[in-house]
Amino acid sequence: TTPPVEGYSNTLWVLLLRACSGLSLNLETSARVLSGLFAAGTLALVHLHLGRLILAPWPRFLATLSLAAFPPFAVWTTGGLETASFGFFVFAAYLTLTRTWTGGGSGTWFAGVLGLAVCLSRVEGPLWALGVAVAAWAAEQLRVARDGILEVRA
């Protein structure tokens, strides 16, 4: 027999699959379906974010389609591993933080939940969560500086 695969470094993924097992679902199929759902969520977030950047509909569609057709994205989406969920949580945490800071602070708790999901998704998750927070902070500083320059020029 094949020895079982251990998932100690992917706590959240193991818990999600445990929930599927509790529902008597096939784990191989469940893992692939969950990966596909998280990948679809990532594509939806990319599409929405590009709209937030005021990109016209066709370029938004083509940019989202290019991500969906990008071979590494497609392979990791269909593999049934935690990579698709991890990518979703990282991107969602970044978008939530940047939107929270731009909008005046509402949604900080949700960004924290997403950060926790990042931390529980992989062993290096806490470093990624820190990187997301630093990147979102830097984006906010650049936005504030840009807006200040625009106000001075006007």
Strand-helix topology:
Blueprint: H1 11-22, H2 27-52, H3 57-69, H4 71-78, H5 83-103, H6 108-121, H7 125-153
Helix pairs in contact: 2-3, 2-4, 2-5, 5-6, 5-7, 6-7
Report on this structure.
The structure is a single chain. With 154 residues, this protein is mainly α. Helix content is 80%, strand content 0%. Helix 2 packs antiparallel against helix 4 and helix 2 packs parallel to helix 5 (83-103). The radius of gyration is 18 Å and the shape is globular. The termini are far apart. The mean pLDDT is 88.
Any descriptors?
single chain; 154 residues; mainly alpha; 80% helix; 0% strand; globular
Cα(first) to Cα(last) distance is 73 Å
Strand percent estimate? under 5%
Report the radius of gyration as a whole number of Å: 18 Å
Largest sheet: none
Oligomer: single chain
Low-confidence stretches: none
Residue-averaged pLDDT? 88
Characterize this entry briefly:
By secondary structure, the chain is mainly α. 80% of the residues lie in helices and 0% in strands.
